[in-house]
């Protein structure tokens, strides 16, 4: 389940589906399931990534002229197709609109395995930093975060997997990290690499990201640690959400942006 409703709505190629007897490939995730209404002032790093003016994915402010999102959100798109909205809790309204001037998708991004699922967006002008729009620090390179650590996920993705709409109000949910070993076992034939981390309530479900949340932030102890990437279903107790592991790709971010 690619958690990118933007790709679903705009390109009509990304869908969430129930797991099959044999896992062929993941779907992008993109919604917050089991979450609560959120105020952008509490999560001022959250961005809406727009495709020709319509919400496509989430993203995060990592510098005045830099945003971070998922590689699958930018795959095969041009910078002139994209812009970001900063500083608004409400989808498609308010805040600051800034055009994207260049996309730096990880050169090793693989659309079939969803590995190296990260893209940097250079903005045409600086975001005006306010209490509703501010930079979030990134985790350090090559660190390991303990399973069970609570994470915060925000976005405008679907609130229920069967929904045909996404909410106007920003949503937030907290879920614990799951070890890559357990996550890999649960996904069976699909590879969980070092460029991925997993989070969710194993055996319980009920809370997750979903379509529309793709590219959005997963935050640990006030630092950006993950990017909403993929999974099967939404809030499925058998399949934790899978997120891009920023720590393992931190050098790429620094090389491109200097951050």
Automatic annotation (TrEMBL):
Residues 1-17 form the signal peptide. It comes from the Eukaryota. SUPFAM superfamilies: Trypsin-like serine proteases. The keyword Ribosomal protein does not apply. Transmembrane segments: none annotated. Keywords: Disulfide bond, Hydrolase, Protease, Serine protease, Signal, Zymogen. Residues 32-258 form the Peptidase S1 domain. PROSITE patterns: TRYPSIN_DOM, TRYPSIN_HIS, TRYPSIN_SER. GO terms for molecular function: serine-type endopeptidase activity. The keyword Disulfide bond applies. GO terms for biological process: proteolysis. Belongs to the peptidase S1 family. This is Peptidase S1 domain-containing protein. It comes from Rhamnusium bicolor. The lineage of its organism: Eukaryota, Metazoa, Ecdysozoa, Arthropoda, Hexapoda.
């Amino acid at each position: 389940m690619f958690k990118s409703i933007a790709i679903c709505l705009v390109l009509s190629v990304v869908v969430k589906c129930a797991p099959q007897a044999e896992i062929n490939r993941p779907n992008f995730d993109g919604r917050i399931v089991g979450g609560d209404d959120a105020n952008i002032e509490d999560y001022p790093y959250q961005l809406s990534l727009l495709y020709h003016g319509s919400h496509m994915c989430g993203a995060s402010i990592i510098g005045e002229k830099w945003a971070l999102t998922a590689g699958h959100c930018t795959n095969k798109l041009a910078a002139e197709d994209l812009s970001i909205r900063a500083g608004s809790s409400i989808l498609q309204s308010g805040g600051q609109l800034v055009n994207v001037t260049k996309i730096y998708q990880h050169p090793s991004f693989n659309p079939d395995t969803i590995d190296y699922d990260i893209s940097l967006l250079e903005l045409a002008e600086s975001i005006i930093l306010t209490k509703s729009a501010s930079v979030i620090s990134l985790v350090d390179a090559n660190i390991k975060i303990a399973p069970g650590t609570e994470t915060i996920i925000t976005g405008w993705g679907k609130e229920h997997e069967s929904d045909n709409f996404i909410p106007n109000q920003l949503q937030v949910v907290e879920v614990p990290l799951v070890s890559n070993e357990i996550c890999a076992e649960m996904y069976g034939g699909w590879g969980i690499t070092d460029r991925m981390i997993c989070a969710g309530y194993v055996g319980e479900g009920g809370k997750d990201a979903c379509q529309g949340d793709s590219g959005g932030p997963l935050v640990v102890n006030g630092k950006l640690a993950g990017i909403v990437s993929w999974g099967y279903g939404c809030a499925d107790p058998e399949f934790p959400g899978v997120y891009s592991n920023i720590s393992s790709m931190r050098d790429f971010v620094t090389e491109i942006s200097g951050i």
